[in-house]
Request: fold
Amino acid sequence: MRDDTLQSVAVRKLEAEVRMSLARALLVMTVLCLFLEVSVGFVIYYSGEMNQGVMSYALLRVILPTSINIILCFMAHVSARTPNYSDKTKNRFASLAIIIFAGQLSIVHSYYVPIWGVSLFALMFCSLFHDPVIHKIEGAVCLAFIAAAALQHNLEYPEQFNYTVECLIVTEVTGIGICYLAFLLEKHSRKEFLINMEITAGASKYKTGYEVDALTGVYSRAFLTESAQIILENASELASVGVAMLDIDDFKQVNDNFGHDNGDIVLRQFGELLNLYSEKNIVCGRFGGEEFVIVFAHGEEKLNIAALEEIRTMFETMTFAFMSGNITVSGGYKLVEEPLLFDDAVKLADEAMYDSKRGGKNKITVNGGVT
Reply:
């Protein structure tokens, strides 16, 4: 199974955020390192401890490292924003950039032995991208940087050759151990990641089954009730809520005359129509059988009724291959201006809907009573 099929949109978004964070971190660290090198240069120059020329120091300790860091920043920013690269390629650019940044820092400051293995910390961080191939390559790069830092230290302090070799052996052995530990952690993290993805996928399927009515595609009664109750609890005169009950007229006759399969087609078509109106502030759900409820979080009676009339008219014009006539829908509407239980609000809308039925069907009636 390809990695792309295992990664959800949320995971890809998270990795993209991590890549951009790394790119920004590289930029900040480049500025800080530049300030550090210039400051250290002034200190050792005025203290008389500079063992090389000013131009040599500026070239090797300031200009060259800063140029490399700028290139790494550019590489990280461009790769993160280039749509032509895959997520895996972008991850590799970002992780290599941070490791090379840390590695060149250890070489420039090789006189400070504890910093030789700083790239290993970057290696541990790069396990976030779950790429075992590049992770092993990066481990080898980290060990190479340690050796390069030791070589640079020996060139600057040849009289400390034995000390340099001892530090190299200790740091390389420690580095190998850290790399091995990093690989184990990455392997464990990758397994945990895949398990979590499977759990998330299963939970998503369960959630979808809970939220959505399988036949019509609108919200299920359980999710409708849960969502609508939250909206109705906050109803007030300044934040009114519109509740509508819609019922397909003479639906029993459709089932009796044309079969339940064709009845399901009608329900599915009506669900598709309601989903055209379903949005953040409008909750559409199947209440039961051929009954549907719409909750308008922004209750404005004229606008809500206009939307309901549009739904009624559009459904009336729909044609079905199994019959020659049209099918209509009746509805009831109630504007709620105070906190109210969902069942009570639906009851008020239901009363108005039955007034529509008794008044000839295929119409929307408003319940003007006090809640």
About this structure: Residues 253 and 306 are 28 Å apart (CA to CA). Confidence is low (pLDDT under 50) at residues 1-8. The first strand starts at residue 241 and ends at 248. The longest helix spans residues 161-211.
